Amino acid sequence: DSQRSAYIQSIKQLLKVKDAVLVAHYYCDPEIQALAEATGGCVADSLEMARFGNNHPASTLIVAGVRFMGETAKILTPEKTVIMPTLEATCSLDLGCPPDDFSAFCDSHPEHTVVVYANTSAAVKARADWVVTSSIAVDVVDYLDSEGHKILWAPDKHLGAYVAKQTGADMVLWQGACIVHDEFKAKALRELKLQHPDAAVLVHPESPANVIELADAVGSTSQLIAAARDLPQQKLIVATDRGIFYKMQQACPGKEMIEAPTGGNGATCRSCAHCPWMAMNGLVAIEQALLDKTGREVFVDAKVREKALVPLNRMLGFNK
Ligand code: CIZ
Ligand code: SF4
Fold it and tell me: Which GO terms of type biological process are on file (predicted)?
């Protein structure tokens, strides 16, 4: 409608005036992803968002995603102004891994190499030897295992269990979960597969193990988009945040996409799987952030930044 297009016009103008670029995650609402694309920004997973922000010449980054993504951007490019549509956009994995408790957990496993998922606070990253995203978790752990490391993994227990299974590495796991992916249900998915025997099942590894077992492809958001394009099936059942359908449909426009079921009673819940924090990145909030960054700018303590930069740079420099 006309109000939405007025916001879009205003944001386009403000991005130019403020020398800013919009970096959006795949789980943001489709109109935000479209706006990032239309304005020379990017739509990506957290690893590529970090790379893009790092390499882009704009002096201000608007990070449409969740808090840890803004923090990562600030850690990597402290000279830039990093703004988020709202600093309230957090993540259940980050919330479920408080730095002090995590540090005590590390202290109780002194012989372990600490590998943390990108979905953590800067303070947790500062305590880690490695940061990984789901797109490189298996490769990094496989490499560390081959070098003889025992691994302490945090915070996502499902992703940790999946990585341990794939690599055979010796891993102790923090017991965190993503409130979105933890809701996918194996029983209902099995029933949905029976209704659509010709469909391929795509699952993000933050989902429970019994859901992952039913998958034809398991991977990070960018890996699932590639699998959607490359698999021969014309029908796809997808277990991850529904925001991903925007890029998935671009990657394979002819294919039919079905949301994997959440909730226990066998009912396919349409549009349940959407991160409430990703959903906070709306047009109004983006415009406000560009007009007045007060209370929306990301800062990271200098000492924390210096420590967190080490495992983050390992992640960015890792080539399997
Ligand atoms: O679930 C998330 O927040 C993901 C998949 C983040 C990422 O690595 O892009
Ligand atoms: Fe965190 Fe899950 Fe939301 Fe991703 S989808 S930001 S892991 S709560």
Answer: 'de novo' NAD+ biosynthetic process from L-aspartate
